[in-house]
Amino acid sequence: MKNHLAIIAILSILPGCASIARGTTEDVVIITSPSDAKITTSIGSNCTSSPCTIKVNRKTPFTATASKPGYHTGSLFIDTKMSGKGTAGLAGNVLFGGVIGVGVDAVSGATLDHTPNPATITLAPIATKPAAVKHRKRSGKPTS
């Protein structure tokens, strides 16, 4: 009976292989061109300048927005998708953790990765207006 309880205890630790091996958060790197732009995200994480790295829940897609004086603001949607490493963790659940492990990984998002990562946002410069052209007055004719 004690052996059965020990086996059950060990098997209860195994579920969620991807959750254990990969964790439920991921570092997402955001790069801007030009560099040193301010980064804000739809999930509340911010950086005062780029490049920057933010820790994000693996199952949370978000939008990153970059701004810098003299440039148009740029945004990029960063989505999530099943990754190769996440698939391997899921396969480990099928072999060792069973249905509970698959459920834990699905709910936690441990099988997902953010894409693109690293994410690059390219900012377009704001065009400056050309200097005003002065019209010369021709003798005897009004200027337009």
Explain how this protein is built.
With 144 residues, the chain is α+β, with helices and mostly antiparallel strands. It contains three helices and eight strands; from the N terminus they run H-H-E-E-E-E-E-E-H-E-E. The strands form two sheets. Strands 3-2-5-6-7 form a five-stranded antiparallel sheet. A hairpin with a 4-residue loop joins strand 2 and strand 3. The chain is elongated and about 55 Å long. The relative contact order is 0.23.
Radius of gyration: 27 Å
How much of the residues is beta strand, in percent? 25-35%
Helix content: 25-40%
Mean pLDDT: 75
- Count of helical stretches: 3
The major pleated sheet works out as: 5 strands, antiparallel
Count all strands and give the number.
Answer: 8
Structural shape: elongated
Q: Indicate the structural class.
A: alpha+beta
Order of helices and strands: HHEEEEEEHEE
Main sheet: strand order: 3-2-5-6-7
Query: pLDDT below 50 for ≥5 consecutive residues: which ranges?
Result: 7-16
Q: What is the CA–CA distance across the termini?
A: 102 Å
Give keywords:
144 residues; alpha+beta; 8 strands
Quick overview:
With 144 residues, the chain is of the alpha+beta class.
Chain-wise SSE layout:
Elements: H1 2-13, H2 17-22, E1 25-33, E2 38-41, E3 46-47, E4 52-57, E5 62-67, E6 74-82, H3 84-108, E7 112-115, E8 119-122
Parallel strand pairs: 1-8
Antiparallel strand pairs: 1-4, 2-3, 2-5, 5-6, 6-7
